[in-house]
Write a structure and sequence with these properties.
Largest sheet: none
Distance between the termini: 93 Å
Strand content: under 5%
Structural class: mainly alpha
Number of helices: 5
Number of strands: 0
Radius of gyration: 32 Å
Shape: elongated
């Protein structure tokens, strides 16, 4: 697992077996899963180090990514929260489609009757 950098597909290719074989072997031998997790943690540490380096160099994409993921508690997020008046719940009203259609038909019928009355 160490020779493959913690990547199952690479390990499978080096050993000449399928990914499923590696996965099954990791299930049967928890120490391999622990090694894989340890390698993954090292990769995450490396990626975080590179991200911080990019931020220090002024990389705006890195800065925005960091703020959106780690700065949420400070309001850096694309999530919008919508509320009703004075921060209260949004008032909704469900109107069945048949009620809307019936209302429109009634209006049309009344207009048609008015037109007929005026014509007579």
């Amino acid at each position: 697992m160490r020779a493959s950098g913690g990547l199952r597909t690479v390990a499978a290719a080096k050993l000449g077996c399928s990914n499923a074989t590696i996965t099954n072997y990791c299930r049967k031998h928890p120490v391999l899963k622990e090694i894989e997790d340890e390698i993954t943690e090292r990769h995450l540490d490396l990626a975080e180090h590179k991200l911080i380096s990019a931020i220090k160099e002024g990389d705006m994409t890195a800065i925005i990514f960091f703020l959106k993921t780690k700065g949420r508690h400070r309001g850096y997020s694309q999530r919008m929260e919508v509320t009703g008046a004075d921060g209260g719940p949004i008032q909704t009203e469900l109107i069945e489609a048949s009620e809307r259609v019936a209302g429109k038909l009634a209006s049309m019928l009344a207009a048609a009757r008015a037109d007929i009355s005026q014509a007579n």
